[in-house]
Amino acid sequence: MTIQLYLVRHGETPMNQNNQLQGITDMPLTPKGRQQAQATAALLAGVPFSAAYSSDRLRAVDTAEIILAEHPSVVLHRRAGLREYYFGGLEGVTNNQLISASLARYGVKTMTHAWTRGERFAQLIRNFEKKWIIPNKLNHYLNCGCACKPVLPKSLRLSLMMPKC
Questions:
Q1: What is the pLDDT of residues 57-94, one digit of tens each?
Q2: For 145, left (φ over 0), alpha (ψ -120 to 50), or beta?
C-alpha cells in the first residue's frame, strides 16, 4: 500500500506580506493568500483525498477549507500539534531586524557560516527518512491489524493521516 502525502503551505498573510516572523501568531489570509489557496485547490481538484489535517491557526484552516471546497466529503481535522514554531519575543520582528540583530550579536563570520554551511534541506530530508521512514516497519504498521506499537511519533501519524492499528 502506498500513501501519497500532500503538504501545502498556507497562503500569504499580512505578516508574510510585511516580511515579519509569524510563528503561532494567528493571522487571516490576504486577498493574495486566498488566490494562492484557490490556485492550489484547482491543481489538487482531481486528487482523491481520504483525510485532511491542518493546524488550528486561521491561515492554515482557511487555506485547507478553500482547497477542500473541491472535496466536500473530506473532513478537515484541526490539530494544535501542527502549529508553526513559537518564536516568543521574535514574533512580528521583520526579517531585516532579525538579520541585523543576529549580525550585531554573533558577528559576520559566525552568521555567514550558519547561513552557508548549516544543514541544507536535502540533508534534512535524508535525516528525516533515516529516522522515521522505515519501509518494512511502516508497511507492517499500515497493513497489520495487530496491536503493534506505532513506529512514528503521534504528531507525525496525524500529519501523515495514518490509521490507528
A1: 999 999 999 999 999 999 999 999 898 888 888 899 99
A2: left
CATH T-level assignment (fold) for domain 1-93: Rossmann fold (3.40.50)
Residue 10 designated active-site = yes
94 backbone dihedrals φ, ψ, rounded to 5°: -75, 160
**Which residue in the list 65, 70, 84, 91 is annotated as catalytic?**
84
Burial class (CB in 10 A: 0-12, 13-18, 19+), 102: middle
Q: 11 and 36 in contact (C-beta within 8 Å)?
A: yes
Give the start-to-end residue ranges of the domains of the chain: 1-93
Q: What is the pLDDT of residues 31-64, one digit of tens each?
A: 999 999 999 999 999 999 999 999 999 999 999 9
pTM metric for this prediction: 0.67
User: Is residue 84 annotated as a catalytic residue, yes or no?
Assistant: yes
Annotated catalytic residue: which of 10, 77, 113, 140?
10
